[in-house]
Amino acid sequence: MASIAPRHDHSGMGGSMIMAPGVPDLFYMQQIFWAFVGTAIGVATIANILNRILCHHRIISSRNKGSPTPAKPRSFFFQAHATTSAVIREFSYYSTPISFRNIHIYLPPVGPTLVMVFYVVLITVCVFYRLNTKDLLEFEDIGYRSGFIAVAQLPLIVLLSGKRNIIGFLSGMGYERLSWFHRWTARCLLFTVLIHMGYWLTVWDKYDYILVKIKEDPLTQRGIAAGSVLAWLVISSLAPIRGLSYEIFVIQHVISWIGFVVALWFHIPDENRVWVWLPLGIWAFDRFVRAVCMIYANFSIFHKKSTGFLGCKATFEPLDESHTRITIANPPVTWKAGQHMFLTCHVVAPLSSHPFTIASIPEDEKLEFIVRAKRGATRRFFKYAEKVYPSLPSSTNPKGRSVLIDGPYSTIRPLRQFDSLVFVAGSTGAAFTVPLMRDVVQQWIGTTPETSQRLGLSPPAGAVTRHIRFIWVVKRKSSVGWFGQQLDKVVHDVETLRNEGVDVAVEISIYVTCDDLLTSGKSSITGDRRDSSRGQIAQRSGSESPSDEQKKDFSTSTEEVTSQSSASSSKGCCCTRVITDEDAITSPCNCASRRKQEASSSTTTSEKPKTIVDPRIALLAGRPHVRNIIRKTAELALGEVAVVVCGPPGLVQCTRNAAAAISDDRAVHKGTGAQGIYVHAETFGYA
């Protein structure tokens, strides 16, 4: 029986570690790991810089009358860049839909998944490089190496978790996107720790030494403690557990992280403790910057127009049975469309801070949030609004409750650099897409405030965009009122621009899926209908009824389907058809017959349809055929198209896959003349 002579002192954890001949030392492999990570960050930084240069070039070119299509690459360099981007997008956007009965699993897109696959390969190679996994004599070497690679990952994990971090600044990505990588790198850290633990246990098991080490060795005890806390951090961060209570998750996550760092500090050797100091310093810096920004944003002493101790006062207005509008008038901070803030109101919801998308633009001179009441703080906000708002005098402007804000956060590529835009929103997802659309319209009008251009990194004023296609899917017609005034203003502003000879157009369609007043046949779909050309309005009489031939055409232009997203979200909505042609005359859904003609339905038959938005905004009963909408927009575009989607996971996945498929079918930037499609997706849920 071969004996194992311990070549290392485990109590030193590498202080006198001597590897086998030809095997790189432990600190060298840590350097190799960070060389690859740094290279990846560098590539993302270069891509971000190129995107910024391209944006500036496009907007400046739009001012030159000799460049009618500034969103179309012309130089060889940018043509190569566009082709490379198109190839990467076509496979990186795609996500495989998985369904089992009524359970739908939404996997991440291929792009981020491949990044994490490469990361797993990197740490695996760093752990086992030039070591023999079959030689029991080298198991200690693997145990040491894996421990060193594990601790070297800590700074990266903390960098990816910060709200204001260097990686986000360099790569142009918001923390809410980096947080996905944060969670998966933490899981990879646990994977490395399990390798570290497994190989040491194998060595000890050879001599029945495991229990002795656990009972008598303090170093082993501290290592097990650190590994156990890390396992809890990973398990408690899983979406089903994290979603049970966001407030409790955040508190326990910070406490557990501190416990993990303390246990790790006493477990690793002195020469490796720099990998603990670094993440602690990064974390402290992030907290310090956030604290300074919060103090500046919230205390009236820093703002002349603010009164009282805290500068932000919020009013809470109930919109329907489950949504609240929170408004902060004359906010002391500025922001950009598409950003969000963390809102805290300790009087209403103590010790909780939630991220909410900003549903207004700086020109409104107010911060506005549309919040869906779920549980916890959002439910308390809604109940407070129901209790307080009806008692407020309508003729006065109530001061509201003092609140704290943290932000703004998030970033998105300037959409005004694209020739055509497609916005797809589900329910409160319009809080993200409506401000982005309005921001482009403000650029057309030329009324964007100078404050948005103060930063040198911001692109110049102006817009390349010529056409906007806006799609909003809601369950009930009453939800349209959330943004009714904003949408009406967009239609009016664009009409004014077109009358002045400006070649721009906006097409807005609202799909209602679960409203009997709209889908039961009692209220016909009224308003103007667009023809296939951009910006042209074709009048259709509200009393016009479809002929038999038109009804036949309708049957071929709509599909009665129950999509994955519909099945999970509609919960009994009968109007699940997908409208493939908005210009066809469609008959309304007949939900009432499926619901056994409720007694109340007879009283609503005589009700006249009420105009809730501008008649040039289409109200449709059903669900949009996203792929057709994107394809039609792309076929008419003279330059690159941007698709922005915000809503339930099913809608987001469908939109991404549709854009990837259309890009592949049309062979964009591959010699066909077809232009690329960029997708920005926002999914409901916490980051």
Automatic annotation (TrEMBL):
The keyword Zinc does not apply. It is a multi-pass membrane protein. It catalyses: 2 a Fe(II)-siderophore + NADP(+) + H(+) = 2 a Fe(III)-siderophore + NADPH. One of its GO terms (molecular function) is ferric-chelate reductase (NADPH) activity. Residues 306-415 form the FAD-binding FR-type domain. Its EC number is 1.16.1.9. This is ferric-chelate reductase (NADPH). It comes from Venustampulla echinocandica.
